[in-house]
# Entry
Amino acid sequence: GFKKAGGIVGIHEGILKADEGTYLTCRAALVRTREGYTGGIAGSLTSNDEEEDGFGSDEDFGEDLIEGGQVEIIRARNQSDSVTADRGSAGGIVAVNLKNAVLRECENTGSVSSDQGYAGGIAAENYGELLQCFVGEEGKAGSLEIRSEGSDALGAVCAVNYESGRVLASVPLGGIRISGDAGAAGGVAGRNLGYISGEAELDDMKTVEVNLSYMPELDLSSGDVSVGGVAGENGEEEKGDQEENWLIEHYRWLQGNRSHRRKELSILRRHCRKKPGRRYGRGMYLFRNHYRG
# Structure
């Protein structure tokens, strides 16, 4: 495709849903755009073309394209070999998840790449909600690659979670390699400006919780990289000391014993480009505080 390509639909509005216990599955060998948005399930979540050339740089983008009306993709699975954008954003399910859109119970086991833009296992950029979404497969080594050149963030679930974005009970499972020249990389999001939680309350008032027990393999060419088990960077430097909404909570790191977990956290903190303060400290404090007792 040239502008918008998806493994199931190029442009999606409304609700795309599989029956309970089943998945809407893409098994295409290759889903690709030359210049635009590429998703393993849907290329775009709207038919509005006003912003079609704004590849991943405008934070208002997620707010402006859809007015009213819920957009959902429920129980979709991408098993294509590769989702690729030559120029633009690429995501395992959708390229950009918009502000009033929900991706729920979606899975991706295929590689995702962009030669000039963001790339993410579920969505490259998230302005909406990702709920109970998973990337990779447990017990598989290096079978899935998320690669981006020319972007500043890479994440296994999404590259950037914007201010309106919510990532709930969504984690990488295994067999993932993150590669490229980004300066921030995370097990869930490369950069978090919104809300990320290991817990989610479902429609039936039940609460689900996931454990973060896997960190993707990293192959990054940048000499100055921020790395985190949940997010490589938490917050935005330009906001200074303002109190913002970025938040990470309800995650448990389960690799090794308690002392190993604390050691892992200290390693991740030392790799931040700036000393942990308000920008990084808030999310990291919650991460660390979870183990006190």
